[in-house]
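We read letters as residues; the fold follows as tokens. A sample entry reads:
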Amino acid sequence: MDIDALSDHVAAILGDVVTGRAISHDQLTIAVEGRDIVETITKLRDDPDCLFVCFIDLLGVDYPGRERRFDVVYSLLSPRHNQRIRVKVEADEDTPVPSIIDLFPAANWYEREAYDLYGILFSGHPDLRRLLTDYGFEGHPLRKDFPLTGFVEVRYDDEQKRVLYERVKLQQEFRNFDFLSPWEGTDYILPGDEKAKSPDVKAS
């Protein structure tokens, strides 16, 4: 079955559950609502013309400008038909996405990772807690609005013989670059550029 036939077949077996589909780089991507993800994954796994029996990956994507800012992306493989498929679900910060652990136990740590790094919630998960960050970590570090410096820094203190957590202190304030191109310059005077920007300075 070629990729176009697979796309039509998936649309036929899932019906109105599919809210969008696209083919890119010889791989099919379908979009469904979060409430339909368990039904969708079940049909893709069990249908004899699909047989997506290998769970490959689950990841989050952050679009902070959207009302439902997250995409949860599931990647599945069908060894029998040598095909891959991606399933996308939109999610917000408060509404959980149903867990697929009962279908693919391997999704356990992937869902925990998405929760840890993005704050995406999964209902029905037996142990939804942080996976990669430390105890008491603030925020979710892969969100686009998470500061690049983080909130705390970790160091080992040789005198106290222990690891210390301290609030991040920036030694220099960031400059406010308000131009789109590095060749345009600013509309204010940067320290040290007073003479260059002064209209009284004449070229010799």
